[in-house]
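Anyone? Bumping this.
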Amino acid sequence: MAITILPFGPQHPALAEPEHFRFKVDGEVIVDVEVKIGYLHRGMEKLMSTKTYVQNIYMSERICGICNVAHTTCYVQTVESLAGLEVPKRAQFLRVVVNELARIHSHLLIIGLAAHEVGFETMFMWIWRDRELVMRLMEELTGNRLMSAYNTIGGVRRDVDEKVISALKKACTTLRESFLQIRKVFLEDPLIRTRFVNVGLLKSRDAIARSAVGPVARGSGIKTDVRADDPYQAYKDIPINVVTYKECDSWARMMVRVDEIFECLRLIEEALENLPSGEVRIPVSRKMPEGEAIGRVEAPRGELLYHIISKGGEKPYRIKIRTPTFSNLYPIVATFIGETIADIPVILISIDPCFCCTDRMEFVDVNSGKVWYMSTSEIKRKYWR
Amino acid sequence: MAIGSYALERLLRWARAKSPWLLHLNAGACCNGCDIELVAALTPFYDVERFGIKLVGSPRHADILAIVGGVNKQMEERVRRIYNQMPEPKVVIAIGTCSVDGGAFNGAYNVVGGVDKIIPVDVYVPGCPPRPEAIIHGVYLALRKLYGGDFLGKKR
């Protein structure tokens, strides 16, 4: 049979964000995939080097709305190590709380969308009902539902009082109960199992060779987590258990997320239990010394890395960001080959794609694995119709 | 009812006002914060489906185009094309500060600016991101603009 090219995106019901995939299909079976990323390219890295360090907290938050807390944590952590600052202990614990809350909401979002993708609308509604509770906690803690701007250079912006702490603790108990239900569905429900088990196999060897990170790597049985390998903030004081699954399929990747939610709840409870007293923020100079710094955190989707070069003054010279979805796109694209068209959304959702994070600089040719950079005029010449 | 008659026109307007179909489009210069707030408006706490608002996948089925994010150069042509694919009557809502005027991404080399530089916009919903309540209110204003207040149970 002749090979057909099936375009997928940029405007597509299965994707909230515009991205273009070109699947070459032989009947129902996918034989090759081309990814064209760049529909969300905004030139963030260039933009960030034109703004001051304080303004860049807001810019880094707006790289991605879903993992905004991870982005700001990573950014302020890198700037703090550049300036050689020691953040108060209380602020470090609060950063853990807000990071884990954001991780819960991000994982719930993608688990809900996965249920929606396979046509399990009831599950989608259940999960998003719980997610709304998390968003309200987030609002109580930080002042906004999504764009919290909670982290700042030298600490956090708001302290917590007894009222918020008790609300958080109470919500943890409520949420744990409903997550047990979700976990049961993911373990036992025949609909979920038929669509997810043995779909999109990514062997451990391939995951390492293609540098998968986060839940994708952990779903392939690789024990990797920045929170455990290179603890930052208060993760030094609260040890975490890394969740891994050995099944290597889409189901394992989703189960890693489901189990991580329980881990997040435990971390929040422990951080609130051991919350040290003291101030939450120290005054910081607007100007940073000359030098370079690297910071990495475990974003909900995997390892996030910031590299800042400073030549002194109020503005950074260069900021380089490496986001988890960019690392995960290449390993996962290979798993499409041999699967059917109906499995495309399931596999894609199982890496929790976040194209807002991804589209900043790079272009990837999946066939050759080559990464290159392009100017706008080149993009115009090559891809604009 | 004859085609083009006043009664048919009224019936059509009533039916459209009671089931507006919404197309969600991310125009590029966006951080997807507004995307998920728009989806949150569909979920049990806010549940816009009780007003008949439904998310659809194809621009050819949609009455309302909800654009999140400012327009970047890669998506510029696509936004225009999707707008042209929608049947009349149509209405465009710009959700979030970025789609109102470019927001935080103003000044980037790849960003054109707000959505109204590309296509006409009827309702602006500012906020970074706007709360789901604000988005629902934006849709309500858009419907009022399209069909008039008396079709939404305002003048009972």
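Late reply, but here is one note on the structure posted above: The two ends of chain A are 29 Å apart (CA to CA).
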